[in-house]
Amino acid sequence: MCGIVGYIGHREAYPIIISGLKRLEYRGYDSAGIALYDGNDLKVAKTKGKVSDLIEKSSKEITKTGSIGIGHTRWATHGAPNDVNSHPHASNSGDLVIVHNGIIENYEGLKKELMARGYTFKSDTDTEVLINLIEDVKKKENVKLGKAVQIALNQVIGAYAIVVFDKNKPNEFVIARLGSPLAVGIGKDEFFIASDASPFLEYTKNAIYLEDEEMAIVRPGKEIKVRKIKDDSLVVPYVQELQMNLEEIEKGGYEHFMLKEIHEQPRAIRDTYRGRLLSNEGIIKMAGVEDNMKTFLNANRIIIIACGTSWHAGLVAEYIFEEFTRIPVEVEYASEFRYRNPVIYENDVVIAISQSGETADTLAAIKLAKSKGAFVFGVCNVVGSSIARETHAGAYTHAGPEIGVASTKAFTTQITVLTLMALRLARAKGTMSSSVFRSYLYELELIPQKIEELLKVDEHVKNIAKQYLLSTNCLYLGRGYNFPVALEGALKLKEISYIHAEGYPAAEMKHGPIALIDDRMPVIVIAPSKGHYEKVVSNIQEIKSRKGKIIAIVTEGDTAVKEIADHVIEIPDTEEALSPLLATIPLQLISYYIAVMRNCNVDQPRNLAKSVTVE
Fold this sequence. Notes:
Blueprint: E1 3-8, H1 13-23, E2 31-37, E3 42-48, H2 51-61, E4 68-74, E5 89-90, E6 96-104, H3 107-116, H4 126-141, H5 145-153, E7 158-166, E8 173-178, E9 183-187, E10 190-194, E11 206-209, E12 214-218, E13 225-228, E14 234-235, E15 240-241, H6 257-263, H7 265-273, E16 277-278, E17 283-284, H8 287-290, H9 293-297, E18 301-306, H10 308-325, E19 329-333, H11 334-337, E20 348-354, H12 360-371, E21 375-380, H13 386-390, E22 393-396, H14 409-429, H15 434-454, H16 458-466, E23 473-478, H17 483-497, E24 500-505, E25 522-527, H18 533-544, E26 549-555, E27 567-571, H19 579-597
Parallel strand pairs: 18-19, 18-20, 20-21, 21-22, 23-24, 23-25, 25-26, 26-27
Antiparallel strand pairs: 1-4, 1-10, 2-3, 2-4, 5-6, 6-7, 7-8, 8-12, 9-10, 9-11, 11-15, 12-13, 13-14, 16-17
Helix pairs in contact: 3-4, 4-5, 7-14, 7-15, 10-14, 10-17, 14-15, 15-19, 16-19, 17-19
C-alpha cells in the first residue's frame, strides 16, 4: 500500500524512479507522482491513475534531468484520489518536498494551528500538513532540516515512512519511519530509498531497513547516520546483503505475476521445507521451534493472529495443530484482536502470520500480545520485515517475492511451515506415532511433485471458467480441513474478478445459503475422498436437486461425484491434512481465468493493496 522511491547520487534520477515505481505497482495505488531537482529548481509532476499516466504527464510538464529525485504511488486515505492529492507535496515556500506512506492521525489539529499562523493548503491530505509543520519548525527553531523533521515527528500521532528534500540543501535526504517500511540501498557514492528493495536490486545488494522510530540523513559519499527520533541517540545500522534476485520480480514469460506465482508453488514449497524436512532421517529441524520447544510444549493454548489470506492459512493450521498436537487453538482476525481486551496468559503462544511482515493490524496485535506476557512466533515471507524483528522467534516461508496482490504461493507456503511446526511438536509431545510421523514427512515431500501434475489441468480449468465469467454470485463449500480452502477460494474470486462469492462449511448450506441456489448459481465444492466424503456427496445432491451448477474438486479416480457434478477437477490423493495444499490450486486457476476473461486487472485489483500498512 503506497510506494516510495528516492534516488540521490551521480546517475540520472528519472529512469531509476520511474522503474522503481513500476516495481512497486503491486502494492496497490490510485495515483502517482515524481519530484526532480535539476540543479536549480524542483520539478514536480503528479496525476491520478497509473505510472504510465505519470510518464505521459512528465513528458509534457517537466524536464527529466537531475540526479536527485523522489517518487510515489498513492493509495488514498485522506482526500480523494486526484492530481492535487497525489504525492509529492511541497511546503508553502516551495523549498521542501515530501513523499509519505502512512496516516497522521492528529493532522486536523495541526492543520488548524498552521492555518492560524498563515499557512494555506491546496490538498485534503495529512501529508501536506506534515511538510508544512516541518517547514514551520525549521523557521521557528532556526534549525537544519534533519532537526526540524525530528522535532515535527515528535508532535505527530500516527504511522509514516517519509523522504524529505530541501532544495536549498540539495545534497541530502532526510528519511524516517514508524509503522511503514523503508529500505535504503547503499551504492558507491549513491543511495536508493524505497518501500522495499525491489526498485534498486540491479544497482546494489546492500541495504539498511530502518526500524520503527528511526530517522537518517542520507548524503552521497558519506556514511549514513541513523538516530532515534525520540531521544536523538545514534544507532548502528545493520547492513544486510539482499538475497532477492532481479529475475524473481520479473514475469518470466507469464502474462501476469499471479499466473507465474501459481506455477511457482512447487518450487516455493520445496524451498520452504528445504533443510527442515529430512524424511530419510525421519526428522524435522526448525531452529525457531527447537530453541523454544519448552515454551511450545508448556503452552496452555495457541492463538493465531492474521488478516486476509493469512487468516485462512491460520484456520487450516487450527485443524492441523489440534489434530496433531492436541493443543487448543484459537484463530483471530488481528484487526479485531488488537481493539478488544483479549484474555491472554503468559503461557499462551501467539503465532502471527503475514506474507509481507508489515501488516499494520498484525503488528499492533503482536505488540498487544507481548505486553501481556505471551510468547510470539512469527511466520512471514520477507526477510528483515517488521514482524520478523518484532516477534520473539519465527520461521520464514521462503516463497520468494510475491508481486500479485492476490496471494497464492504465500498461502501454500504458510500452510507448509505451519504443518512442519505441528508435526515437530506432535513428535516432541508424543501425540503422533513414529510411523504416522514418517508417513506425513514422506507425503509432504511429494506435494510439490503432485502440484506440478495438478497444474497440467490448466486448459481444463480455463474451459470451465469460460462458462461462468458472467456469473454475479458464487458459493464455495468445504468441510474439515478444506472449509478454510473454500473461504480462500471465495476470497480469490472476489479479489480479482469482482464477482460476489462466499465460502461456507458444506453442512451449513442448509442453514441459510441453500435459499440462493438456482440454475444460475455456480457452487464450487471441495470433495476429496478422505474426510467427510459421504456427507459432502449428500450436500452436492441437495444442490443438484435445486438445479445448482456444481464444480467439484475431487480425488483422482472419483466416481460418485462425477455422476452428479456439472464439472469435475481431479487432484492427486494425499493425506487429509495435506489436501488443502492441492485443493487450493484449481481454485486459484478458476479465479485467475475468470478474471482474465472479464478483462480485470489481475495483478492490481481495484481498491486493493498488497501490504496493508495502515489501518
